[in-house]
Here is the input.
Amino acid sequence: NNNNNNGVNGNNENHTNDVDEPYFHFSIDRVSQFLTQQNNREGFSTLVFVSPNNKVNQIFKSYQQNHSDLLSFGDIRTYTQGSTTANVLDVSAYYKHENGKRAGPDVGTSLRFVEFPNSSEGTQTLLPGLVHVDAEFPSTVCEAFSDHWVSNVDDRTEFIKILGETVGFSSKVDFNAGVVAAGEARIESTVIGNNPSFVANSPKEALQNNSQIYLPINNALSEAGHVHLFLKEIGQGIQHIASRVQDLCELVQHANDIRKMTGEGCTFLSIPRSYYGRLTLQDLQDKCQITSELSQAVFDQLQKRELMSLTGIVNLDVTAEAISKVEDGLHAHLKDSYKAKQQEIQKTILESRYINMLKFLGDHVTEETYLKIVRNQVLVDIQGQDILYQIFTSCVLQQEAGLEAPFLEFIQRVCSEKRDENGNPKPIKPGCGGFGIRNFLTLFLSIEVSKSMLEVENAKKENNLVAAEKAQKMVDLFTEQLDESNPILTRISDAMTAEGDALEMLEKSKSEEEKNKYREEAEKWNQEKLRGQEDLQKCSEKYNRVMKEVRL
Here is the structure.
């Protein structure tokens, strides 16, 4: 993101060598270093942090004391451009490993810390060598602000330790192996970050302020799946970068429209419709209080009129008028019962298109927004009263189809407007909405689904029916795992939210009686969370076994 609607232009852009290049970060040597380490794959080479004044030297000393091998140079580099001075510290993000031991710095991905000692904090954010230029953008362009950056690494705990010892980052969220598994593919992930004092007083401030830093870190636990293949093909590096936007559905709709009109632009991961909801016979019976015979008859008519798939996925654009035609195909003895419950039946059918979201979002959003979410395949989660919308692109910077490559994520954090005891708006904490425990697994599964769908397509092109059938079974299994995991993930998420609320009340408690009450409450929900994780582990193990059988 660039603030103030300014573009960015670089100096010394057209070089055949580095003789005249005063900035290492623009040098051919740096580009070659990155590509060599990354197996000549394009990617995101550097994470850059603007540091408060006088902090870069502290960070340098921390690396010098604890991880001197990761320093790219022997000291901080100072650049002067006009009246602006910048102190720049470059370090390798990770260590390389051979036979389970450290083998020097991994010089592919870098962390860069920049400070501007003679400028007021926040007024200067341009990397040395870049200058502002006037720029105009169409009204349809959406501003995006950095939210988090995700790494795939060999040793997750080592990287967490490095950042804890050098910049003071700490763990925020842990997704263990029971949570993040898709068939045989298993990973662990931890979100680490800083602890800024900043709190926003408005949604606009929460959107634009970048003082909160989050760095999710993944490592593979099995020799299957995206993270394992990324590390095998490319090496350690940045899996994806995530940016916050004000209206995610609008952004995705615009991107999809452009792609349809021009044939160009980014595509997004395919999310199974069952993620959002499906109609079941039991739903019709229970919600509408009708007999199993009438429920089955309505089901049959919906499928016969092609208003619903064989698996209960109702057409997104179905109307109440189209549903009312179901009556025409019913046996005479069922019509009176149908008419008596027609409104309830229509409502249940229409809501089934997004019923999974409706269960945990309720009336937080309108039907129009629900349908936009489903149509654009946006992922949704809720933490307390905060809503998180997410979407992931297909691979970018990909040399050819089927190869691993980084991707992009766009998110919208809808922070609840809480008020204090006096009725005044409470400040908004950065990162409201969390990281989407439901969506984390959905992302992992969707990556595997998309790869399997590509295998289906390629096998059909080659007229290899056996391979196509095998790949389709994998698609179906990943989708089944998502469906089975969703209610368990909801339990875990609800328990985490309730535990967090109890711990917050514990901090505010003054009497010992109140403290004991909220300790017990927090522990109760912690145990519920752990039971949910155990159930999810069992679900993961089940599909791990089944997927192995399919691959044989």
User: Anything to note?
Assistant: Residues 1-16 have pLDDT under 50 and may be disordered.
